[in-house]
Amino acid sequence: MDIPMINLKAQYKTTKKDIMKNLTEVLSEQRLILGKYCKTLEEKISSYVGVPHAISCANGTDALILSLMALDIRDGDEVITTPFTFFATASSIALMGAKPVFVDIKEDDLNIDPELIARAITKKTKAVIVVHLFGKLCNIEEIIKICNHYNIPVIEDMAQSLGAGREGIKAGGFGDIAALSFYPTKNLGGIGEGGMVLTKRDDLGIKVRKLRVHGMGDTTYHHELIGINSRLDEIKAAALVAKLPYLEKWNKKRIKNARFYNRHLKGLPVILPQIPRDGSHIFHHYVIRTKNRDGLQSFLKQKGIQTGIYYPVPLHLQDCFKYLGYKNGSFPVSEVAARTSLAIPVFPELKKAEKQYIVEMIKLYFHKISS
Length: 371
Ligand SMILES: *Cc1c(COP(=O)(O)O)cnc(C)c1O
Fold this sequence. Notes:
By secondary structure, the protein is of the alpha/beta class. It has 2 domains: 8-103 and 110-245, Aspartate Aminotransferase, domain 2; 246-370, Aspartate Aminotransferase, domain 1. It is built from 12 helices and 11 strands. The strands form 3 sheets. Strands 1-9-8-5-4-2-3 form a 7-stranded mixed β-sheet, with helices on both faces. Strand 6 and strand 7 (169-170) form a beta hairpin. The two termini are 25 Å apart. The site of pyridoxal-5'-phosphate has 15 residues, from helix 3 and helix 4.
């Protein structure tokens, strides 16, 4: 068997008709930038997540940068975040001239530890970026309590968590502002790069809408702010509008796949992810942890099963962040997670026989090394 980490061709089979219909329309109309599909996508995602403002942009990294720009993050400011995430979560802070301040994650779900946020807050702290890693909501309620107390805005990096929710609130609807990515491999993936900023705050929504188009207000070529060019192409928006109706079903299948794995991998010397019943984990990735990670990965590769390591180097140990002065041992939970985490295929189109094969091969590996 040959099992990829994600099967975009299978996804395309499901969505091709819908996508093609919309693309043909855009191309024949030739309204290629900020047309009706951009507007529709923004409206649909704003109502899906339950926030009044949704502003599409070029990619998820820009969505983070636009969020930080809207909050006036600049030179000398500190922004607290997790070192166990994709690079852009922290690079966006540094690109604004501000200082990323890392705090460690919790062992149970690998998300940022609220208590450590509280301890890292200083007079210079101007924002906190939380990540709902692998599709699992972090302890956002607790974090918002802490940040409200100090009047510090919370940015949600929801690149991996569109659709995850708890008690009626979805990722992107908790904090002051949120950054979403439509990178092709995300739970709602586009036909290229894409992103979106979500916010319930009118001041920030109005500002991001300007910042996305060079800081222009309602009058063309009059610039109120120094913005950037970060528009989402209309053809990409049209494809995303075609795919959005599938998102809930896809997320449910991911959860179902995760349940299958948890049932069948029980008893092995691996830490399995917890599967909350309330929909607060939508399994962008299904990540197991084992000290035999590298051995397991190469064994599965031999057996035709692709896996992924998210993330092999925690951000505080990246070369480019050496100037921040962290060292090996600064964030032990993140460092262990980086050494032990392995993501196995969990994409919605995964077939039962493929899941069974993956389980069998994982069992076989542990059987081999223990005998
Ligand atoms: C994918 C991702 C991003 C960046 O999104 P792009 O669209 O690739 O720029 C940011 N943060 C996290 C956690 C991500 O997974």
